Amino acid sequence: MFGHKEKAAIAALAPQHQALLNEATLAVTQSAAQWGELFTELAAPHPLIHRHHLPPRTLDVVVPLIRVISQDVDPTAGIGVRLDLRGPDAAGKTGASRKLPAAGRVTKAEEAISWDPWFVVSAPLRNGAELEVSIVDVTRSRHLQKRSQSGKIKRKTKAKVTQRVVAKLTTAKDVIPVPPPPSPATGWLQVSAKPKGSRHVVLARGKYPIPVAPAPGWQVTTVLLVLAEVFRWVPPAPDDTDAPSPVAPMAGAPA
Amino acid sequence: MSPAGGATRAVRTCTATTGFFVLERCDRLAHLGCGRCQRSICKRHSLSLPGEVGPTCPECFAAARGYISDPNDPMWAVGFRRSFYWEVSSSTGDDTFWTGFDDFDREAFELSEGDWGDGEPGDDSFGDGDADYLDS
After folding, report:
1. Given pLDDT bands bounded at 50, 70 and 90, which one contains residue B46?
2. Do the chains contact at B18 and A71, CB–CB below 8 Å?
3. Rounded CA gap, A209 and A183, in Å?
4. In contact, B53 and B35? CB cutoff 8 Å
5. Do A39 and B72 touch (CB under 8 A)?
6. Which among A184, A217, A224, B61 has the fewest CB atoms less than 10 Å away?
7. Rounded distance, CA B33 to CA A151, Å?
8. Cβ neighbour number for residue A251 with a 10 Å cutoff
9. A252: Cβ–Cβ under 8 A, 6 or more apart, which residues?
């Protein structure tokens, strides 16, 4: 049978790796160490797998983002991730199209909106807070049908993609968020903080068009800016003032 | 407990910065000092740069090593944290973008002469702010 060696090689991989190769989706909660093992496996090229590729955004966006979030999570805590990297045209992502008013030579106009939540993460942080992140690509597609003067019928399709990133930080108990000084780096975000019991919820929302030719690292940096904004609202824990100076002599060392 | 003679016994803890957004100190017992910034570091955060005898803390290690593009590199997160905040602050002119960094962290951002690489042809990524370079 053609491709049986490749199928056998895929079957021997970790289930998370298989899910990404076969279905371009993944929904799992595991520790930072387990994520690290998976990422190491993803990065290593397999000598027998040539026809199945990792979905786009896996290595250049998903891996760095989860690596960054892992830095703030206790090693034993689980990081929940739901990935759907099938793209905006996958089944179930596009809503019903609606008719737009046609005028002049435009004989038919329709619009459809696709909602693609491709990255959702939930992680408990070391300081007792909880972080939730979601990235959604919203594509508005317009299909036009025109009749030219000679009677020819022409069809045009135009798509506009915007991205919405939401970062929600539920602070640790009795931690009160403080609005930071506005920064030009994150001035484009809508941020709010509301109490929720003994905690507070800091919410940052960003909405922007996806550039046609984004610079390398643009996606990761943009998402991290949204994350950084919610953390800017939480004042850092005071340093231990009794800690000796780092230039102090070692214990037992001669003065 | 004070040792005999009444002198207090100083215990040093590791001051290596951990985390990306939630910045904390390592707080393990420190047995070494960074050869570059003198901060106390534990064995876990002790790294060695090629050509240097003494130990180096992760911040100085990342500063000396430069940009690491591979997220699977063990030192990627420290280097990326450093470059992310530095780039955001410099591109927007906002020095207060991240106030969680203290003087120790900021010192590691200051590039010394030895950190500018070997000056490979065509590599002007760090040379745009050097007045002498531009004047020559």
Report:
1. very high
2. yes
3. 21
4. yes
5. yes
6. A184
7. 82
8. 13
9. B9
CB neighbours (10 Å) of residue A28?
16
Instruction: Decide: A176 and A198 in contact? Cβ < 8 Å.
Output: no
B contact test, residue of A67, A170, A188, A239 with most B CBs within 10 A: A67
Q: How many other C-beta atoms lie within 10 A of the C-beta of residue A158? A: 10
Residue that the structure tokens 């929940």 belong to: A80
Average pLDDT, chain B: 72
The amino acid sitting at A26 is L
Nearest to B85 by CA among B105, B68, B65: B105
The answer to whether the CB of A142 falls within 8 A of the CB of A109 is yes
Question: Does the beta carbon of A45 lie under 8 angstroms from any beta carbon of chain B?
Answer: no
Considering Cα of A20, then A23, then A24, then A29, what sign does the dihedral take?
negative
Residue B40 bridge partners (DSSP): B33
Paired strand residues for A98: A111
CB atoms within 10 A of CB A176: 12
Among chain A residues, CA nearest to B27: A243
Q: Judge residue A153's burial from the number of C-beta atoms within 10 Å of its C-beta, 0-12 exposed, 13-18 middle, 19 or more buried.
A: exposed
DSSP letter at A174 equals T
Q: How far is CA A81 from CA A60, B26, B102, in A?
A: 16, 27, 32
Contact A73, A124 (CB under 8 A): yes
Taking the C-alpha atoms of residue B127 and residue B82, their distance in angstroms, rounded to an integer, is: 18
| H or E segment to which residue B91 belongs | helix B76-92
pLDDT tens by residue, A48-107:
888 889 999 999 999 999 999 999 999 999 999 999 999 999 999 999 999 999 888 999
Instruction: Count CB-CB contacts under 10 A for residue A255.
Output: 4
Q: CA A33 to CA A16: how far, in whole Å?
A: 14
Q: Is A44 exposed, middle or buried (0-12, 13-18, 19+ CB in 10 A)?
A: exposed
Q: A143 to each of A75, A99, B19, how far by Cα in Å?
A: 50, 10, 48
| H-only helix segments in A84-126 | none
Nearest Cα residue to A35 out of B71, B19, B45, B16: B71
pLDDT (mean) for A146-168:
94
**pTM of the full structure:** 0.81
